[in-house]
# Entry
Amino acid sequence: MLYLVLALALLGISTSGPLARLSEAPPLAIATWRLGFSLCIVAVPLIATRGWRQWRTLTRSDIGIAMAAGAFLAVHFWSWIASLGMTTVAASVLLVNLHPVAMIAGSALWLGERPTRRQLIGTAIGLSGAAVVAWGDFSGGGLGSRVLLGDSLALLGALTVAFYYLSARRLRAKLDVWPYVMLVYGTCFVVLLGFSAFTGVHLAPQPARELGIFALIALGPMLLGHTGFNWALKHVSAPTVSLVMLGEPVGATLIALSIPAIREVPSVRTLVGGAVILAGIVIATVSARTRST
# Structure
């Protein structure tokens, strides 16, 4: 069951890039709408299971951690999407996929979960594959101030998504997945609304085509992807979840290739790097130790 959820969650987040590419809306509008639709979907099982009653058991510290996780997720969405307009896509993907490094360090220091040797080897192999994918873009251009800013924003996206999942790992021991994600996604939505208002991004009205894309992003990357990973965090360590997420560039490439409106043919370098990334994931996740609920 666990590995099925992880596989479906990886498939979910892999649809994010291709779906966003099909949209003509500003990046912040895409992120804000995806969270809005996600909250509507999450509210159904939350009310049906009366999961909101679990909020009564939370301390102020717990609520603060949940709010921080939502803010980290919002900054991740903003910084990574913004980086795509400043640096190469390959460089952005490489830097944002450095999150396993931060996850392993943070999980050891904050959660007391020391990484296994296989996890460390899997991390090194996975990041090596990401480097193979991005190497051509790094070696082909100069480093202007705008490119450096884009690289920095992508790195910020990696750090914030790591903090987001570390926060989830800490709180998932107390909350089921629906009350947890409602708190986190709600905070993320409010923060994104603030970002949009501050930057003057037009959120509404949106054409029916765009609303359809936003709904699909909520169902795939958010509900199936992020929520699936949040469920898995109660059964597997945070670094393992982060390592599985390294497969996103591979999945997104295959999906973009299969959609006629995009039809991006991956290069040999991308295919080789993708194979290395998958090898790292397999090595790391095979050693993952699950625990019963």
In short: Confidence is low (pLDDT under 50) at residues 289-293.
